[in-house]
Amino acid sequence: MGILTRANRAAIVAALCALVLASPARALETDQYYAWLRPLADSSEALNAKINFELDAGLAEINAVNGGRDASCRDALEAIHDRYTLFIFQKIELWAQRTAVLSRIPATQEEELEYRKNWIYGGVAWYDLGRTVPPSPTIEIAGVRLGTDKISHFFSEGHYYLDWYDGARARGLSHDEAVEFAVRRGIAIETTVLGGVISGVISPADLEANYQGLDWYIDLCEGERPLLERTEHGWRLREPFDLRPYVSPEWDESYLPNVVLDGRWKHVKPAILSHCAELDEPAVQARRAKYAERDRHTYTERVLDAMIAAGELRDPRDYGIERLCTAAAMQAARTSAVEDRTRQ
Question: Which of 116, 125, 234, 243 minimizes the number of CB atoms within 10 Å of its CB?
């Protein structure tokens, strides 16, 4: 790679700034630890119903013009995408935060005030960007607890991945090469600008939801049997959308932890450690055991693991509660042993 000129550096900075402004509010954070001991009903059916309502509405808009005969599959895809997104906060997440049909934690304004004080980011500095935006509540989909921000990542940033994928395909890359390009570009932006600079949190769970969104968008119009088909009545989905096959334990940030940069970590680490005793709770143990049974080494995790091995990324597992609590317990045992010897 050649030396970057001043003009090239300026262009890169401008492009990154434009991406930040055009992206969803990446400072939105969530805390599944907070919900560990709180009951949640599964919201899969209700969320799927809302998503399918919006999917049908988007396709109806396309089909209203000449029966959709002048629209391509990509036109239909874009009409679907537009039903979910806004400039910053995404329509689907705003709905998820307000509707009464989803079981979520926190569920009311009063509970959100408590959440803001006691979640793992509640002790960050007063000037931290995370204090200026509403935190994402936790919902449960297909037995997995996740922040409502993951829905936005699936539909909105999954679409960014699709644009990068399309660009790579147009340059002659194969399908697999284009997918890798999109995933690596998403990771690069997460680790350098959006997570590395803006929020101080690098979220593998967000990246996993992004990738699953890309997978769905590609399947809408590509492959031997695309999910979208043109009929005599216009464009339609071959079958109703179901989010559950795309959701995995990797969407739970208490299971696939974030890398929290130093400025925030000094505040977040004690908050995570405060949940150590809850690891022994039967409900928590049962949930994490079920997660372990379903755990899969995902495409995104394989790319991240290669970066960790190359020293390009900190290991998220170092920020996970098992490793933190084990280290804290060992340190407490060593301190106790020293104190015992001193007394003797």
Answer: 125
